[in-house]
Structure formats: C-alpha cells, structure tokens
Amino acid sequence: MRLFRLVTVCVFLLLAFVSQVTAAENLLRNPTFTGAEETIPPQGWNLYGQLHESNTITVVDADNPEERALHIVDGIIIDRGLVGQIGLTQNVPAQPNQAYRVSALVKALPGVSTDGAFLQLRFMPSGKLQDLPLANLSADKWQEVSIEGVSPADTKSISVYIWTGAKKSPQILLRQVLLEELNSDGAAQPTAKAASADETKSSSTAMQTSKSVLPVVPPLPADHASRHPSILVRSEDVQALRALRRTAPYSVLYSYVLPKAESAFVTPLPDEPEPYPSGWEVNNWRKMRAVATQVSDTLEALGFAYLVTGQERYAAEAKRWIKHVCGWDVNGTTSTAYHDDLGRWIVSSMSLAVDWIYDTLTPEELAEIRSVLLARGRELYQVQVQKLAADPYQSHVVSSLTYITRAALVLSDIPEAQQWLDFSLRFFQEKYPPWGGDDGGWSEGLNYWRFSMNLALEAAEMFRAAGLTDLYQKEWYKNTGYFQMYFMPSGSATLNAFGDGSMGKALVSSDFSHITRLAGVMQDPYLKWHAQKMAGMFDSPMAAYLFFYRYGDTYRELNQVSASDLSRSRAFYDVGWVALHSNLANATDDVALYFKSSPFGSASHSHGEQNSFTLTAWNTPLAISSGYYDYYGSPHHNQFTRQTRSKNSILIDGAGQHYRSIEAAGEIVEFFTGAGYDFTAGQAAQAYLVKLDDFRREILFSVPDYFVIIDRLQAPNPAHYNWLLHTLAPPTLDADTQTVHVRQEKVGLQVRFLHPQELSFEVTDRFMTIGDKLTVYKTNEVPSETDQPTQYHLAATTPDASPHGFFVTVLQPYRQAAPDLQFTGSRIGGTYLVLAEGTGRQDVTLISVDGSTAELQGKGVAARAQMVAVSRQNGVLRKLLLKEGDLITLADAGSVKASRPITLSVEYMDEQVALAAQVSQAVVVELPMPRKPIAVLIDEVAVSDCTWEDGRLTIPLPAGEVRAQIGF
Fold it and tell me: Is 724 helix (H, G, I), strand (E, B) or coil?
C-alpha cells in the first residue's frame, strides 16, 4: 500500500511539472536527457567537471518512464579544481532585463547525502549568478526546486548548471530541467501552442521540420565594398596577388588549388545532413564531418580562385554553393551545438569565401547571406567561444577562435560581430595559448600542435593584416618552432612523444609548412635549416601563396644555420616536456629520450603520463607511449590509452594517475645539459592525488650511451609499486638478473633493474584495463577499434608493500648484436653505486639514496654531492659530473673542488676540454687538467684570470648557465 501511495505521489508531481512545460516554453535543449544511455554528456548538454572512476553520470531505471533519471555521483573530495566536481551545463541565448526561472526535478538516494550539489543560474557575459544548494533532499519523493533572476543589461545568454562542489561528495537523481521567461507578474510566458510529442523529441533523434528564424541584419554601410576583402588580405593587395599568379612560385601553388575549384562545377551539391538515426555514433559523426570537409574545402578553393584570377565564373560557382548552404537550418544538424565541426567549419569557410568574392555580391544577396552568417556566428559564439571567459582550457573551443574571427571580420560593421572580434583579440593577446607559454610548448602534444598551428598562424596573419595587433611579438610564437624541432628532429621517421596521436608519422607536410612560415616571419636561421632538411611541401597552397607574397623575399635571403650549433637538449618548462638528445641535427644518428611532467595534467588531449618517458634511438622507437587513438572517448582510448597503465611511469597498487584532470599535474623541477652528461627531474605526486606524497623521477643521460633512472616514492600507507615499460617488440626477460632486452628492427634496448631486487614481472600484448596491486594487466581487455600493430606491456612490481619506494634502472640502446656495457648496482649505506663496464670502459655513478647532498663513496670515487658520475676509457679520465656538490676525489686523477656547491660537468677530449655549469653565485673551481691550456673561453669570451699549476686548472665561473672551452 505504501508503494502504491509513493508511486501515486510521484506521478502527481510529474504531471504537475509536465503541465508547466506545456504551459511555458522550455528554453533548454533536451531537458529530459534523451540519449544519455549512449553518451555522456547527453545531446544538447556539456559536461561540467571531470568523469573518471569516482565521478560518474549514468541513467537509472531506464525502462521505467516514471522513475528514469540521471544518477550523478561525486566521489572525490579535494580543495579545488574540476577533478573534484561533476555535473551538466547548457548555454542558451537570452534577453537583457528579463526575468527567468530555472526549475528541476531532483531526488536523493536512501542514506546518501546531497549536500554539496547545486542548481545554478548564470547570466553571461557579466557572470552574475545565483546558486541554490540542494542539501537535505528527500529520498522518498521527487522535489521541484527553482531559482529566479533578472538578467543584467548586457546579457547575451544564460548558463544553467547542475553541479557539485569540490569539497563535498554528494549524489543526486535528476529527472528534468526547465528554463523559462517570466512575465512582470512572475508567471511563465505561454508558448504559442502546446508542443506535440514528435516536436519534443530530443534533437539526437529528430529535428524540427521548419527552419529557424534568421536574425535581421542592419543595412549595409555606405563604404561596405571598400572594406573587403578583409580576411588575410586587404583590397589594396588584390591586384598584386593577381599579377603574381603567372610567376614562380605562385603559378605552382595556384595550380594545386585550381583542380579543386574546377571540380566544384561538376560536383553535386551535398544534401543537408540527416539527424543521427538513434543518438550519437562515431561512424555517422564521421559521415557528417565529411560533408563539412567537402563544403569547407570547396568554398575556400572557389573563393581563392576568384581572389587571384578575378574570373567571375569562380565567384558565381562560390555563390551557388553559398546559397545552397544558406538553405540549411542554422540550428539543425549543421549547427555547432549538433555537430561542432560542421557548424564552425561552415561559418568559417563561408565567411572566407564571401569576403573574397564580396565585390560580386548584390545588396540583396548580401542581406540573405549576412543574416545566415550572423546566425551561425552568434550560435558559435554562444555555444563555444564565450565559454573561454570562464574556462580557457577547452581544446575545440580554443580552435573556434580563429573561425569566429573570420566571421567577425566579414561582418565587422555589426556591433555583435565586433564583440566577437574584441573577445578573440583579447584572448589571443592575453591568454593564448592556454596550452603553452613563453618556452613555446603545446601540452596537448605534437599531433595537436600540428592542427593548432594552422589556426595560430592564420590568427596572427589576420590580426596583422587588419592592423589590430602583432601576435608574432609573443614569446610563444618565437619559440614554438623549437618545440617541434626538439621532439621531431631533422630526419625523424616516427613520432614518439605524448598525448593523443603521439605515435605516428613524423615530419609531414604541415610540419614543413609551419616551420617555414615561422622561419620567414621570425627571420630565424635555425628554423629555416630545419625546414629545408624536411624538403617538404606546404599543406595549404593558399597559405603558401600569401606567405611568399608577404615574406618570400626576406625568406630567400635568410641564411640557414644547422641545429648542431644549438644546445643538444632542451626543457620546455611551460608544458613540462624535456628532450634529451645525443645528436639533435640528425635523427638517424641520435639517441633521444623524451620526458614529461606537466602542469597541465591529463586534461583535454593529454594523458595520465606525468613522470613518463619515451625513447627513440637511431630513428627506431624503443619505449613508447602505448595505446591507440581510435577516436576521442572511444572505450579503448578512455580505458587504456589515456591511463597511466599505458605509459612508462609507475602505478601505486595497480592504480595510476587521475585522467582528464588539469589538477593531476606534474612539474619539471631540474634540467641541466652539460659536457658529456644531461640531467632532468620531475615531481608528479600531485597527479595521483591522495595516493602519493612524493614521486620524484631523476634521469641521468651519459651521452650518448645510456640513461640511469632514479625513482623515489613516498605513499601515506604501505603500497606495492609497479614500474612500467611499453614497446613495439616483444621483450625478452631474464628474471634472475632482472634484465630485459627489446629488439626493434636492427636496434636493441637493454633495461637493467638494479634496485630493488626480487621484482615480479608480467608481460602482455593485450590491452587489459583492470588489475590489482600485484597483477597490473589482469582482465577486461579493450582492444583498439582499428587494425593496429601489436604493442607489449611490461610491469615490474615490488615484492613487499612499503610506504617508501626506491628504483634504480638503467636503459641502454644498442646497435650491435648485444650491448657493449654491462651494469651492476649495490647500496653502500646512503650511497647507491651504479657500475658500467665493457670494452676498456669503466663508468662509476654514485647516487645519494635520499636525494640530499651527502658524502658519497665507491669504486675509487669519493664526493660531497647529490650525485657524481665519472667515466674512464682504458684508465684515462674522459668525463665527469658533479651535481649539487663541491668535491669529487678520484683515487687516480686528483680532485675537483668548488668554492660553493654547483652542478658541473667536464668532458676531456684530445685537443680541448669542454665545461658546462649551473652556477647560482660566482664560484671558483679547481680541475685536473692533463696539460697547460693555451686558451680559456667562457661563453665564447677569452678570460685571463685562470691559473694552471701541477696539472690543475683554477677557473672562476660567473653566475648563470656557463659554457667554457679550454684549448691546448
């Protein structure tokens, strides 16, 4: 009987709520979350916060219309950040000085708190908001909760949020949300008629048959014709561009565009895409994306053909395609809200084509086209672009800035479009790039760097041509070419770094195009050398045509300088990436380790890969960032590729870093590139949130031979640590010596686990997503949805649980049948000794176990430092490293002394000695020297205040990054 009364009450409340929906227009799309069973966020909504194993949104009681609801679970408590929040949000157009009400049907679960959940009404762009706490909800019945507010005078849109705070962990059931305008008396505005069942279906299953009403555009200004073209070129450029068409290199570039423009005359006009048959599905999404590609490429080719020829036939054909697309519903399947690539590509390419054929359009044609561009631009701005004011870290939204800038320039006489332009300009000046900084990095990875550079360079050219700003003066633009160079050096055969699409083809046409354009704009001789070594082609003939028009003469006159004159290794602190190279100038003769510990965490196209590395030797990938990128959010992508279990990092009791979280961050805390040695260190404890208090990974590169990796971990509770390695070839394991060999083509990798002993090993070629503290790859295989080469995954797990973890591991690439060095390790008190021996070579590395400066001793070497390394060949000292210390004593070669602790490396060659140091304050150093020098240069300047006596050189070093050459 009680159950009957409960159902009766629920039905009564539901009918009461639905009656309000029929009496007033709901401004929200998909208010009942249709399609949420297939995809989160459901169609029409955006995700707020981060989904992962503790934060989930699912559908419950899907088969019961009376109880079907979203179950929102927030399972993480942290001080701040999106990783500790979860919910849904939607943005809709709104009027100023208007009263609005947002209502929702919500419910609690028995015994579970809703404290920390909120309903929010936010007016944009002012950001004025009202939050309604949803604490103390009933678990027995559905409750209607609501907020009312009056929009400020500058209001353009409303954002509705159902969200949870970071410091609580609530759960909530959510059935339906209503946003409505209110009359002056507080009553809801009535709709023109009650909506039928068919008309209220989700946009994921049906679209309205009637097209959206287009906005009314103001009359054209008197000087409108003289303002166009305005995108990338000005009216005064047109005659020069046309005159160059028959000369080199312009004639060749134009010949690549012409076939695409000509094909438009015989290509059937595409139909407006049909809605998804039954909710979002990747193959249908790809089909719709192909329509966007066809329309965009055709419109831009036709517009460019007219721009550089002046032939009316191209303008007429562009006009035919434009008018056809103008017949599509701006809020239908080609809207940004429905398919963001379709919507934004259409408004972008149409804007460009309209601008370039502007002088052939009649006022009547312009009135029709401008209303469509205004509607599409408005939707793009409201659905995507203006979100950047509150959250700049949205990849697709950031890329939309260039598209909205095109629309804003072609509609520049309309105040609303000027608002778009002002927003874009300020963002590029003040916040761009959100995924990088002054060092030139791009945290989303090289694959997305390629795509983003197209838009970054076009934005800079658009603003420069319009006389608004010169983005090329920003440090990021000056340095980003080096980010590409250091992670895809000259001659690279494969891409092997981090983020989505991290494994793939290196040095494609877009790389050549971007580096060439950056070299020309910046007049950078190293980037020109790098571009010429690629010997590629521009990925966009249109961009190349305009590049040579503006920068061709100065680019041809620019001398090129080899990358061999640059530092062989480099840290990009802005994104937390480090490239360690033996030969930056030639990938075929290079050993390169790439290391990541990023402040941008695992958000967007980044993965849970802090303190991870990849290794490429002689153009062969030996240690990889594994997993494949089927498509964004595929089961394989989410459950394996994005997870720490697919990276060369460490798991804690089988668990990795949080993914899809900018809070799950790391940091490059040290970097040194010296004479014969490079060193870097990262700190990644934060990426694991509460699982770790400390995770410092140090990497010493004994150039060019091998890497010593030192891992120090501290957990709040005893734990097993799982050290991971991923390869493209099956690893061969010798469990007795804890040695792994990987043969990839004609190149090998020896991995020697020196400490701890008695590790347990597992190897698999399957993408297992579930494991435990002792068996990482245990069950739940999620294979790639595309046919891809096999990958191999190795885990080395500590035998006992402990709050402390300490690993010493050596990686040696080799080209011979077997490596020429053999490694042993031993602990002597607070010192860990790594000994490498073979072919007359003896290397001694002493490491402070706790990482502090300490008295270190072993194998004829004593020191006061954090780490020292000494290399001898046939008994002759060849190189040494002193890290954060002031003394090395060598039993057979004297000592190195510094008047204060420094980091110093020295390489002894036949005709000279090279020295490199990091010096916080001026210091005096004494070195063993085989004979009296004839010249000492510090940072290429000769110095005379050095002394040599009895085989020792005393040399004063200034503060800073110091390089010295000592000649005999």
Answer: strand
Query: Omega of the bond prior to 434 within 30 degrees of 0, cis?
Result: no
pLDDT tens for each residue of 736-773: 999 999 998 899 999 999 999 999 999 999 999 999 99
B/e letters for 440-461, b = 16+ CB within 10 Å, e = fewer, are bbbbbbbbbbbebbbbbbbbbb
Task: Report pLDDT digits (tens) over 71-121.
Answer: 999 887 765 455 578 889 898 888 899 999 999 999 998 888 898 899 999
Inter-residue contact 619 to 493 (CB < 8 Å) = yes
Question: What per-residue confidence (pLDDT) applies to 53?
Answer: 67
Say whether 99 sits in a helix, a strand or coil. strand
Q: How many CB atoms lie within 10 A of CB 167?
A: 12
pLDDT at 195 over 80: no
Query: What are the tokens at 728?
Result: 């493209």
Q: Which whole-number Å values give the CA distances from 932 to 291, 700, 913, 924, 952, in the listed order?
A: 74, 31, 11, 18, 9
Q: What is the pLDDT of residue 15?
A: 36
Cα(170)–Cα(583) distance, integer angstroms? 54
- Locate 212 and state its tokens: 């959206």
Q: How far is CA 188 from CA 25, 178, 185, in A?
A: 8, 11, 9
> What CA–CA distance (Å, rounded) separates 601 from 639?
17
Q: Which of 547, 549, 469, 466 is nearest to 230 (CA)?
A: 466
Q: Is the peptide bond before 392 cis (omega within 30 degrees of 0)?
A: no
CA–CA–CA angle 70, 73, 74 (5° rounding) = 145
**How do the residues of the chain divide into helix, strand and coil, expressed in percent and rounded to 5?**
30, 30, 40
- State the pTM of this model: 0.81
For 165-298, strand residue ranges (E) read 171-182
How far is CA 734 from each of CA 597, 721, 751, 760, rounded to the nearest angstrom? 31, 20, 10, 11
Residue 197 has pLDDT above 60, yes or no: no
| DSSP per-residue string spanning 161-174 | EEEE-TT---EEEE
Residue type present at position 803: P
Work out whether strand 677-683 and strand 694-702 pair parallel, antiparallel, or are unpaired.
antiparallel
**pLDDT in the model for residue 187:** 56
Burial bucket for residue 850 (CB in 10 Å: 0-12, 13-18, 19+): exposed
Give me the numbers of helices (H) and strands (E) for the chain, helices first please: 15, 46
Q: Are 850 and 714 contacting, i.e. CB atoms less than 8 angstroms apart? A: no
Longest CA pairwise span in the chain (Å): 104
Measured between its terminal Cα atoms, the distance across the chain in Å is 102
Distance of alpha carbon 395 from alpha carbon 914, whole angstroms: 44
Cα dihedral 349, 353, 358, 360, rounded to 10, equals -140
Tokens of residue 332, six digits: 């239908």
What six digits make up the tokens of 780? Answer: 């739940």
Q: Can you tell me the distance from the alpha carbon of 379 to that of 821, in angstroms, rounded to the nearest whole number? A: 63
846's CB contacts (< 8 A; 6+ apart) are 831, 832, 833, 834, 856, 857, 858, 861, 863, 865, 867, 868, 869
Q: Which residue is associated with the tokens 């804007």?
A: 351
Contacts of 70 (CB under 8 A, 6+ apart): 33, 36, 57, 58, 59, 60, 88, 173, 174, 175
Q: Which residues of 729-758 are buried (b: 16+ CB within 10 A; e: fewer)?
A: bebebeeeebbbbbbbeebbbbbbbbbbee
Residues 6+ positions from 864 with CB-CB distance below 8 Å: 853, 854, 855, 856, 885, 886, 887
* Cα–Cα distance measured from residue 742 to residue 752, given in angstroms and rounded to the nearest whole number: 12
Q: Are 196 and 203 in contact (CB under 8 A)?
A: no
198, pLDDT greater than 70: no
Q: Are 34 and 176 in contact (CB under 8 A)?
A: no
Cα separations (Å) of 608 from 580, 612, 690, 699?
Answer: 21, 9, 15, 19
